[in-house]
Structure formats: C-alpha cells, structure tokens
Amino acid sequence: MESAAKDKMKPALPCGPEWPEQERAEQLARGAALKWASGIFYRPEQLTRLSQYRSREVQRTCSLEARIKSVVQSYLEGVQTGVWHLSRALEAVQGTREALSQAHGLLKSMAQASQSLEPLRERVVQHKQLQALSQLLPRLQAVPAAMARTQTLIDTQRLLEAYVSLRELEQLQEETWASLGGLELPVFQGLGLLAESLSQAIETAAMAARQLAREDPALLVAALRVAEVEAGRTTPVGQTPRDWRQRCLRALQTGLEQVHFSTTTLPEPGALAGWLKALQVALPAELATAEALVAPCCPPHYKVVQLWAHTLHNGLRRSLQQLLAGPELGAADAFALLHWALHVYLGQEMMGSLELGPEADVSQLEPLLTLENIEQLEATFVAKVQASVAQWLQKALDGEIAEWGREQEPNTDPSGFYHSPMPAIVLQILTENIRVTSLVSESLQQRVHGMALSELGTFLRSFSDALIRFSRDHLRGEAMAPHYVPYLLAAFNHQSALSSSVSILQPDGAASGILAPIEAALDELQRRICRLVLEALQVELQPLFESVPSRQWLSSSELLDCVCDQTSRFCRDFWRVRSPAVELLLAEAERTVVLQYLRALMSGRLVCRDADERTQAAERLQHDAAQLKELFLGLGLEESSHCSPVLLALRELLNLRDPTLLGLEVAGLRQQFPDVSEDHVSALLDLRGDVSREQRQAALISLQDGPPPSPLMGHRALFSLVPAPTPSLSSCLPSGPCSAPVPAE
C-alpha cells in the first residue's frame, strides 16, 4: 500500500517543448563535435580510421546515456521521497490543529471556573490578614507607648536605646506590611517623624562634637555609633536609604565653621589684624583638640584631623572671600591679610607646624587667596599707602616751608652746615614702606617701589614750585624773608642729601636706569635752586654795574671794590653748603659776576676817545680780572673753574695798537670762547672807538673764516648768556666815528 502511494505521488515528466537551456547545450555540443571532426579528418590518410572513431564514439554515447538515465532516476526517487514526507507532515499538522482547538476549549471552561472561585480567594486573603492581625494585635497595641518611650529616650539623649526601639518599631512595621500584603496601618504614621527626630538629635550631637568631646564623650560616641549602624543596614526594597553618616559628617563641619567663621565673627574695619592673630592661635589649638579628644570618639575612616583641617581651611577661605567682597579694606588690613595668608598661615607657626601630623596638611588645597584676590589687595594697599605717603610728604614740605619765614637762620648740624630733618623724613617714609612690603611678596615690593619713586618725583616738583613761589614773593616784596638766601642755601643741602641717599630706593637686582627720572629731577632741582640764588646775586649787583664802564671806572677801582665787597658778603654763607654743591655754587656765582661785567662792558655806555683811554681800559680789565680772581680764590673756588680770564682776552683786544691786526685777535678770541658772536665783537670794537668800517668788516670776516675751536677744550658758556647789543647806526655811517680811524694821541 505504501508502494502504491509512492507510485501515485511520482511526478510526471514534462511533455511540452524542450527547455531552452537544453537546446543551447545541444548546439554547443554539435559545434564542438564538428570542430573536432574537421580537425581529425583534415587529411585523407586519416579517413581509413573512420570506422574506429565511429565505434568509439558509439560506445561513449551509450555510456553517457546510461549515466544520465541513472542520475535522472536517482533524482526522481529523491523527489518522490520528499513528496511523501510532506504529505505525512501535513497529516501531523492537521492532527495538532485539532488538539489545540480542544485545549483552547478546555482553557475557556477553566477561566469561567476560576472567575467563580474569585470571591472565595478574596475571602481566603482576608482570613489570612485577620489571622496575622490577630497574632500581631498585642504588639500593635503597644506601638503608641513604644513610640512615646522612643521620643522620651531621644529627648533625654539616650540615643542608642532610642535607635534600638526605633528599629524594633520599624521591623514591626515591615512585618505587618508584609503580612497584610502592603497594607499601611495608621498606628505607624508617626514613625517617620520619630526617625527624623532621632536624626536631628544625632546631628545636634555631631555639631557639638568639640564640646561633647570634653564634657560628655559618651553621647558623641553614641550618636556616631547610631549613624554607623544605620549606614551598615541594608535598606528594604522601595525605601529611601537614610544617609545618617553623611549628615553626621556635614554636621561636624557645620558646627566647626559656626564657631570660627560665622558672619557675626567677621572683623570690623581696622580689626582684621587682631582677628587673624586670634585665628593664628585658635586654628592650631582646634586641630590639637581634634587629634586628642574628637578623633578617639570617631571611627577611623572619618579621618577627623584631616576633616578638621579641610573644614577650617575651606571655612576660612569662604570668610576671606566674603570679607573681600565687602567694603574696601584699609592699607593696614590689606597688608596684614596678604602677609598672614602668604607667609603665616602655611608657616611653622600655624598649619605647617611640626606638631601637626600629615593629615593636617592643607598645602595641596585651593589657596586662601586667588591670584585675583592678591592683585586686588596689592592694588588696594598701594593706593591707600600712596595717599598716605602723599599726605606725609606734603606735611614734611609744609613744615619746611613754614621755616622759611622765620626770623632765625636755618638750623645747622655740628659741622656748621645748614641742616633740616626733611630729607631724612622723606627717605625714611619711602624706604620704610618698601622695606615692609618685602615681607609680603616681590610683586608688592615692586609696586610700592614704583609708587615711592613716583611720589618722590611729585615731591621734588612740589619742592621746586614752592621755592619758586618763595623767591617770587620775596623779590616782589609780597612776603619778605629775613633770611632769604640762607634758606635757599639750606635747600641746596636738602637736594644734596636726597641725591646722595636716593640710591637706597633702588631694589636689589633692579635695572641701573630705574632711578634715572629721579636723578634727573634732582639735577633739575639743583639747577633751579642755583638759578634762584644767582638771581638774588644779580639783583644786588645790578645797581653797582650801572656805572661800568665809565670814566670813573677807568680812573679808579672803587666801583669794582664795591662789587667785590657786595659779592663777598653775599657768598659769606656759602661754606654752610655741603660739597660738591658749594663748588658748583661758587663757580656759578663767579660766572654770574663775570657775565654782569661783560653785559655792562658791552652796553655801549663808553667809547674810548684815544689810545690812552684804551690803555686805561685794558689795564682796568687786567686789574679787575686779578681782583675777581683773588676774591673767589679766597672764597675757595679752584682757579681752573674761573671765568675771569675772559677779561684778560678782552684786554688784549683793547690794548692792540694796530687796528689792522684785529682780525688775528678776534680769531684768537673765538678759539678761547666759541660762543662769541659778531654782535659781541662789534660791541667790543665800538668800545675801542678807533675801528673803521673796513677794519670792522675784516675783523668780522676773520671771526667767520677762522679755524673752528678745538672740541677737546672744555668751554663754558659766557657770551651766549650776554644779550648782544644792537649796533648804533652812527657806527656804520660815513660820518660816524668808525668811518675813519681816530689818530692816537
């Protein structure tokens, strides 16, 4: 029967047209065969073997057909077997479908039966809950009393007993919740508040750890033990863990910060140094207390000393930031804070003390002051100090100015030199501020050094302006000073004292030119004082030189004697000026006298009428030069600094007998005094009174065409400081005295 089924399911071979692939394969085979045959039978002698080839090909064809039939038969048998298996699988699927349909009907009938049993199931659950509740009822009735007792234990700070009681209540709540299928009973409503009350009691104890470690360490230990036990408890699923350990640590930090860094403990303006001094004592003592008393009460992993050190550091840092964000600090407070934060805090006096262990190291934490804080404090300090320094320097200058109108001469030192404490006060003010800032930082010292140089420059300008006002008021008669010149000479000594000591303001390692502006200001001040002294000398000498030159001057030395006497009286106090300023002052005084002499000589007030007067004038110049030389040698001026030899050069110009040789004499004068001009030479030739126009022109041409003066000679300005007189028209007209030489008498 099985064989018959197989026979029924055998597939029929296709009867239609051949497959295209088969047709194409036959064409290829025929072509290959023709190609092979044409190659084999190409030559006639190979036709004799045609029968052999035919029989061989017939055998091969038969073999191929047999193999093909075998393969096709095997393929057909495989297909037949596969079709049979598919039919068997179809029968099995149909049987399974019928079984599933029967099972689905059974399930529907069971669901209807289960729905009818649902009320019974609910009754069973209620029965179990009532049974569990009846068993727990005695314990549940005791819950309110237990909660009240727990609260009493918390209030009396019996924290361990309170925690045990709380845990019993919580375990009862968990057991009841599990037994009642998640049903919450009203009797446990206050349990969360009770746990929070215990947590707050633990935090309060932790905040008072410093005090409890001394007075009641058992309470502190109990609070920390409760926090640790709670941290090690496994929290049931669905409940939020109570992180009492972290709350306890935060409470330890909060209590410590409130003691030292609460807003009420921030210092008032001006009291910062005292506050920092108190912290300098309190913080190391606090760390020592933590190590000796608090640490033994805490678990080792709390690292109490490190916690204390970091808490104190961060609290101090926040307090300083809050302090800097408030009103601007004064100079003393800014300096105290910079020095304390940069040097004292991490030094051996405080956090770097050898008595503190490595746990107290805060050097790796954020610094107390940021770079912006340091910049702000340094700028504040420099601004405040600059204002104070300006006031102090102004007070010193005002005190000095007040002395100028006294009836007494300036004070002198034991050596007899004019002396005033003002230069020492000025330098002390500046150097002390620079020295103090070296205790803080190099940057602050550089800032203050720049400020000191700036204020010194301002002071020197104010000093110079005050001297100008003093001189102007005196010379105008608005405020006559009894000792005008002595106080100018005293100012010379002030300038010398400042100039000799200003080098102490140059910091170590600074560039050599950093004091150049101050040195230039001091030099300018010296020139200003010297100019004021010389102006006073000119005022006294000007009336005496109004008669020079004159006929009286030619015949008598009385006029120059008066000049020398007046100059000697004016310079009698020069010895009270310290060297080298005194040499400069004497040299300028001598040059001032000579300039007055030259100015008078070229004023055109005298024209020699004959050779005798020219000889007298030449002799007078020689005598006056010797007299001036003797005067200033007696005053202490070295001969090399004298300007009076110019009178001897003019003497040669006047004493020349032959006017045609004036060109040589004028060229020699230019060699000695390069600043002599044509107008000066013309004025001197007018003084001779015997020079014709041609001779004058020749002399002036020789002045222009003569060899230039040697640059190696040190020439002091003389003629350039004498205003050249405008030549009179008569000296250039044919009818004038220079139109023809005056015959020698």
From TrEMBL:
It is found in: Cytoplasmic vesicle, Secretory vesicle. The keyword rRNA-binding does not apply. Pfam families: Sec6 (PF06046). The keyword Cell division does not apply. GO terms for biological process: exocyst localization; exocytosis; peptide hormone secretion. One of its GO terms (cellular component) is transport vesicle. Its main location: cytoplasm. Interacts with EXOC2, EXOC4 and EXOC5; may be part of the exocyst. This is Exocyst complex component 3-like protein. It comes from Sciurus vulgaris. The lineage of its organism: Eukaryota, Metazoa, Chordata, Craniata, Vertebrata.
